[in-house]
Amino acid sequence: MNYKRKRNLIIGISVFLFLIVYLFKSFSLGTRVTGFLFGLIVFYAFDDLFKIDFKLRHYGYIFLILLFGILLSPLYFVSENYDKILHLLMPILGSFLLFYIVDKQKLNFQWKILITFMFVVSFLTIHEIGEYLIDFLWDFKLQGVYLRDISGLEKFNLILPKNDDTMIDLILGVISGLLFVFGKTVSFFYHRRIMK
Asked: I need a surface site. Which of 47, 93, 165, 168 has the fewest CB within 10 A?
């Protein structure tokens, strides 16, 4: 897919989401839509500047990551398992994106898979450090698992302590990365056997 079509797709999504924000006039929704669009634009700019030539499926992966991670972020306070499910599934989508970039390099398969895995684990670690710093500075309740209290929208009950939440998130992310490594390795050897 060429960059003009990618740009038009992002503009179309942006107009649609800004229309929704205008209709509902919600600050929280506006902030989430802005974060979503910022992520999409940064992904497109990265693709364009470095001439990576991501395919439409890769834009679908980043769309899903931003949709479930940012646009649907109120679900973090509704379901205690939402964050854990994302930490298990999102690194797999991220691994597909990273492997596509690494696969263009002239490296053996084992180096490509190792680099992809290490980047995913590094990103997860940096993400958790970012959550800690944001909580430390502004107390956004990113670390720990909180559920909304039934008595009011602004009251939160701590379900899982911050340190436990961080460690479980990292463990699930590493498991997710290992699942990608296993699946990609099986696929690689299967296709290699067919080619022979």
From this structure: 168
Question: What does each C-alpha distance from 118 to 2, 91, 111, 126, 144 come to in angstroms?
Answer: 30, 11, 10, 12, 25
How much is the pTM?
0.85
> pLDDT tens for residues 104-126?
999 999 999 999 999 999 999 99
Task: Report the SS3 class of residue 183.
Answer: helix
Tell me how far apart the alpha carbons of residues 44 and 11 are, in angstroms, rounded to a whole number: 11
- Please classify residue 45 by burial: count the beta carbons closer than 10 Å to its beta carbon, then call 0-12 exposed, 13-18 middle and 19+ buried: exposed
95 closest CA partner among 65, 131, 68, 126:
65
Q: Tell me how far apart the alpha carbons of residues 35 and 76 are, in angstroms, rounded to a whole number.
A: 16
**3-state SS of 160-180?**
ECHHHHHHHHHHHHHHHHHHH
